[in-house]
Automatic annotation (TrEMBL):
UniProt xrefs under InterPro entries: Fe-transptr_FeoA-like, FeoA, FeoA_core_dom, Transcriptional_repressor_C
UniProt cross-references to Gene3D superfamilies, sorted A to Z: 2.30.30.90
Signal peptide segment: none
Protein name: Ferrous iron transport protein A
Stretches assigned to the Ferrous iron transporter FeoA-like domain: 1-70
Keyword match Iron: yes
Pfam families the record matches: FeoA
One Gene Ontology term of the molecular function aspect: transition metal ion binding
SMART domains: FeoA
Length: 71
């Protein structure tokens, strides 16, 4: 399942990334394999989404979230 498919309140653990270039950017922001992610809210039009990872809030676009594969 991809992070972009989760609904607010759902959580998961990062398994891997599908885009090498995007994965570097995401890992620099704390989205590392094995980290737990909680979807806090999604904007009314579906983009962006607010998540909590590594103890802080982060906002991601749908295309960014779709590169994160969850366990």
């Amino acid at each position: 399942m991809k992070l972009s498919q989760l609904e607010p309140g759902q959580s998961g653990i990062i398994k891997e990334f599908t885009d090498l270039e995007m994965s570097i950017k995401l890992m620099e922001m704390g989205c590392l394999p094995g980290e737990s992610i909680v979807v806090e809210r999604i904007a009314p039009l579906g983009d962006p989404m607010a998540i909590t990872v590594s103890g802080y809030s982060l906002s991601l676009r749908k295309h960014e979230a779709s590169t994160i594969i969850m366990q």
